[in-house]
Amino acid sequence: MKKMTFEQAITRLEEITLLLQEGTHSLDESLNLFEEGTELAAFCKAKLKDAEDRVLLLTKTESGFQTEKKNVDTK
Amino acid sequence: MEFDLEVGSRQPLYSVSDITWKIKELLETSLPPIWVHGEISNFVHHSSGHMYFSLKDEGAQLTCVMWKGRNQSLYFTPQDGMKINALGSIRVYEKRGSYQLDCAKLIPAGVGELQLAFEQLKKKLDREGLFDPSRKKPIPPYPERIGVVTSESGAAFRDIVHVVRRRFPAARIILRPALVQGEGAATDIAAAIADFNRYKEIDVMIVGRGGGSIEDLWAFNEEQVARAVYESHIPVVSAVGHEIDFTISDFVADLRAPTPSAAAEMIVPDSRDLLEIADVEQLRLIMHRRLSLYRENLKSLLNSYGLKRPVDIIRQHQQRVDELNSRLDLTIQNTIDKKRFRLQRLDALLDGLDPQRVLERGYSICRNLKDQQIVTSAGELSQQDQLHIHFYQGGAEVSVEKIHQENLAMRSKDEKNDL
After folding, report:
1. Nearest CA of chain A to the CA of B259: how many Å?
2. What's this model's pTM, rounded to 2 decimal places?
3. Which of B260, B305, B383, B405 has its CB 3.0 to 4.6 Å from that of B239, i.e. a possible disulfide?
């Protein structure tokens, strides 16, 4: 699967779900859609469950910007 | 004080105009522009555009006028009962012998300088189109990279992180720390918004801080912040924790949130809803239903009359082909028979016309050698003409000895009748 953003993935997944529900596609096409949908669902799920802490601090450098990890305690 | 009752004695006699001018000069030169505090009464905004009213307190009242050219810049509408501070000069209106305050500025009393500045800036930016709803950018539905402009140590940032972690942990939060109150705050906030626009790698940004006094929040009411928000190519959510009042940046922002945590709630989706969409089981269920439908379709096709009795259909076609075949045979035979019959008749006809057959029966053909023409009448002949006579077998050359003219006329007549 090519690299995509979460938005692209979930949008396409919703589209596929609708297409399958409509059922206007041939069996072959439906199977392809199902396969694509399964991959997208797995991708989205993995993204949503991503527990990695993703808070960054943006600072300016001479050549542009850099980010570093920042710990934020929200408990 | 004593009055000399004699007219025209020691004291000068003034005309009304003279004394009025004197008063006018006294008043207008000795009183510089002044601020007067009072309550508005008898306010009239005349159709000419000028405003006429009185300012009063417990002990006195002062007639006031504010000319059209000046009152157009008022940001509020004066009303009876409103307490105001008016800046103006005392002018004498000679024709009525009255004096009035010619107002240059009116400010609602009790409203601070800040509030006033707020109102003025709001009006100015609104007129410039910075609040235009059509200029507002849509907030992306699933922002994966959220920029935040706020104080690094404040509660606002922790609140935002907390909400995003809970609802949409897939998102990355990038903080560009900024001073959010005091000297230099507005400049820093504007610079932070510009920084994110150069950095580019965010989908949306939250600009804000927690609640505070109007002075604490003031940076978000400054023009440079408003312009930075307006010029941002990245959608901006303003989140100044002051639920009731709006700041200028609230009006310019693409989305206004009442607090920083509300901003986070508004821009990130809830993973629980998304997990429902991304549920493979659900997809499988839909596919299963699809496949059952295909199976049903297939089954009903297999049971259809056409597929159940294919041999019957083939037989029916075979029969039809046979029928057509024999009909074709018959037609061709008929045609051949007709043609053959016609040929036989033509043959017999031709047989009868064959000159050999005629000669066989004893007739002969006579040709005049002079012109090779067949002779059919004695009238064509002259004495001594050389003729050739063609018999069934062989021929002979003869010469004409005697011509018999009888029956000639009669034959000619018959020939005419034949024609």
Report:
1. 17
2. 0.55
3. B260
Interface of B with A in 130-149 (CB under 8 A): 140-142, 144, 147
DSSP tag of B380: G
Instruction: Please state, for a pLDDT cut of 70, what percent of chain B lies above it.
Output: 89
As given in the structure block, the two tokens for residue A73 are: 């305690």
pLDDT less than 50: residues of chain A: none
pLDDT at residue B75, rounded to an integer: 66
Residue B356 pLDDT > 80? no
Least confident stretch, A20-34, B133-147, B400-414: B400-414
Q: How far apart are CA B244 and CA B388, in angstroms?
A: 145
What CATH architecture is B139-273?
3-Layer(aba) Sandwich (3.40)
CB B388 within 8 A of CB B413: no
Are the Cβ atoms of A48 and B176 closer than 8 angstroms?
A: no
Domain ranges within chain B, ordered by starting residue: 16-109, 139-273, 359-412
Comparing alpha-carbon positions, the chain A residue that sits nearest to B282 is A17
Q: Does A18 touch chain B (CB under 8 A)?
A: no
- Please provide the average confidence, as pLDDT, over all residues in chain B: 85
Contacts of B191 in chain A (CB under 8 A): none
Helix, strand, coil proportions of chain A in percent (round to 5)? 55, 15, 30
CB contact under 8 A, A58 and B144: no
Which pairing describes strands B51-56 and B34-45: parallel, antiparallel, or unpaired? antiparallel
Phi-psi region of B394 (alpha: psi -120 to 50; beta: other; left: phi over 0): left
pLDDT tens per residue across span B78-105 = 888 888 999 999 999 888 889 999 999 9
Give Cα B378 distance to the centre of its chain. 109
Chain B, residues 287-306, CB within 8 A of chain A, namely 287, 290, 293-294
Burial class (CB in 10 A: 0-12, 13-18, 19+), B266: middle
Among all residues of chain A, which has the CA nearest to that of B268? A7
Domain B16-109 falls in which CATH fold?
OB fold (Dihydrolipoamide Acetyltransferase, E2P) (2.40.50)
Residue B417 scores a pLDDT above 50: no
Q: Are A17 and B277 in contact (CB under 8 A)?
A: yes
Q: What is the pLDDT of residues B361-388, one digit of tens each?
A: 788 888 888 888 888 888 888 888 889 9
With 0-12 / 13-18 / 19 or more C-beta atoms within 10 angstroms meaning exposed / middle / buried, residue B48 is exposed
